[in-house]
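anyone else get weird line breaks when pasting these?? whatever heres mine. first is seq + tokens for prot A
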Amino acid sequence: MTKLLLKLFTKNLSPDNQRSAIGQRSGVVGIVCNVFLFLGKLLAGLLSGSVSIMADAMNNLTDATSSVVTLLGFKMSEKPADADHPYGHARLEYLSGLGVAALIIVIGVELGKSSFDKILNPQPVAFGWLTVTILAVSIGVKLGMWWINRVLSRHIQSTALAATTQDSRNDAIATGAVLIAGIVEWLTGATIDGWMGMAVALFILYSGVMAAKETISPLLGESASPELRELIVDYVRQQPKVLGYHDLMVHDYGPGQRFATLHVEMDQRESPMTCHDLIDDMERECFQNHGIHLVIHYDPVITDDPEINRFRAACEALLTALDTRLHLHDFRMVQGQSHTNLIFDVALPQDMTGRESEITAHLQESLTKQEGKRIYAVITFDPEAFNVLIED
């Protein structure tokens, strides 16, 4: 069934515009379905006199607006890069998801207000089979939209469609609650319409806040996923002449617009021209195969100096003794008659921020005592988030 759905939504689409076209087609389906549901529930609300059904009808009208926002978001994200936006407009998809999340929160607030009023001023609801049928069909349609958007959002990894998926699920639950409340009141005379509406409103508000969090996070610059980091470093570690890598930073400018920088270590005895050609090949192939704009910084390292290797091993041992999460890279040594400078970077975990001076002093004192002459540690502390995967 899932394959059939994807085949239907990707029919006659080229790989270049498939993502945007799928999002736009999903938006069109949402507009048509929600307008249809709005008209049906409006009729049911007028016939029954139920405030919760009328609120649910307005909810569907707002959902149609959300679908318009989603459609426009995908359409506008297609715009190519220009002078003012050299990284493209793909983040507009995130903004459309944020817009949908905002509308979900507005719906929750409005439904909560109408439900609170219904609790204070309960009124009988004239329920009938026509109303029950309309609401039952509405639940079925919303569950169908939930499944469609769930499949499509996972297929194209879209936060905007993920927000729409949550919205469709919430609508099915909200309409189900309205239906249950109406049936209970119809059979028993107990006025629970307002209480049920309030419970649904709180659930919708929670879902809206969570949807907003998921779309705001990439806009603020969240850390790259472990899967993406693994994808990049697995490719790099397989390349000839690469001894190690560190300082991986990934910048997300929207789906299909990911930029990454990485430091790669190679033996300083290798020809610079050979290393340069290899780096060019890695950058080009990473974009062609994975769609990631990778920029690599070349770090030449000395591998055949016993003295440098001895000091490096000593520093690594001292760091590990302090905390097993501490790692170093970019190690260099400058020797003088009165003292020796050890210059390197350390990946610092977030919870150890503020201990930089303590770590530096510990290394300097221990090495000075061990060597019998003054040793200075010139350390640059990097965030661990950029050095989660290190292989030196």
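and prot B, same format (seq, then tokens)
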Amino acid sequence: MTVQDYIQSNRSRFIDEWASLIRIPSISCQPEHQPDMVRCAERWVELLLAAGCQQARVMPSDGNPFVYAEYRCANPNAKTVLVYAHYDVMPVEPLELWHSNPWEPSIRDGRLYARGADDDKGQAMIQVKAFEYMVQNGLMQCNVKFIFEGEEEIGSPSLEKFITVHKDLLQSDIILVSDTTMVDKDIPSITTGLRGLAYWQIEVTGPNRDLHSGHFGGAVKNPAIALCEMLAKLIDDKGHVTIPGFYDKVLPIPAEERRMIADIPFSEENYRQAIDVDALCGEEGYSTLERNSCRPSFDICGMWSGYTGEGSKTILPSKAYAKVSCRLVPNQDNEEIAALFVQYIKELAPAGVRVEVTPLHGGQGYVCPIDIPAYRAAEKGFEVAFGKRPLAARRGGSIPIISDFERVLGQKTILMGFGLEQNAIHSPNESMDLDVWEKGIVAVSEFYRHFA
């Protein structure tokens, strides 16, 4: 039986099983959903066993439980694939913006709408159903291990310790992840790179209390103005980050990769109009797609100070705050950049204020070679499923766990993602294109054929 025939004959069951996961509100950031995290993990165990795993179990961690399952084929020399996914989801608020119940899947216009439809229950089901097809039809010539976590949406705080403790259990020849996007429904792509991240909160303190702006304005340094002055100096007029040493380890974009990026269909006009800005900007000498994927960046994520309520209150505030972040590229170490930033921002502080910086989050970037057998197998899988060779595309986002896998387990990860920008992950009305979902099952099945 072909994989397409298998999908069609089991389509209703596939969607019912997918829906059974979606109905469990596994929101990792809200403590009241702790029982739901356990329920979702247990449901995955049931589905993995039914799909053909010889063993599956819920495993405890310092936080939410992990799901582990494995299948061993008859060939003693078979390669081993480790499949990673996450079963936790984001909160659904604001509820009034949803067009249907986020916990009850709704199919309309060729899409399944629900929280977790894409991220990551829908994409995880692609992996499990491709595996099921290969096993149930006697085609699987790889050993397969599954590791699903319940804390990805809160930064995977338990994952590094878990994979370190269970390093021997999780050994494989390649790691396979479906938690990224394609360029477009009709433009398949494999994510070959992710940016790292460093994130801080800045606190600037001036006087020991809020002051009357009439009595003290012009005589005392205003912390909010000081903060604005400091932040404005972090980017120069050519779009470069000015932190000393920031670019020391940044590698140039290879010429071949710049050619591949140039081949990606992209309209700057559409991009600009979609976000309603009248101009684009960024680091001099790079295209928009290079700036938002292959080059590092600095952003102010939030600022607050003084009185922001209704009406007026004439004060000179005591404190000002900002949350700021850098997206980093592979070879930049997030801890090293964090230290450089703290030193530099304090040097920028003018007389009359004190500065404290608190690092909040960080992670390393990642690049996948496009000449390894597993990448070629994934490329072939996309080609069979979508009828065209996929583009190799770096992404500007961060998945710090991918670099953790490489550092702890010593293996590269293939990012076979099937999401689309219009799937609205993390937002109201999250959805998954059902045609792409089915093609994803075909692509992963073909990956196993060619990787074996």
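btw re prot B: The first helix runs from residue 3 to 9. The mean pLDDT is 96.
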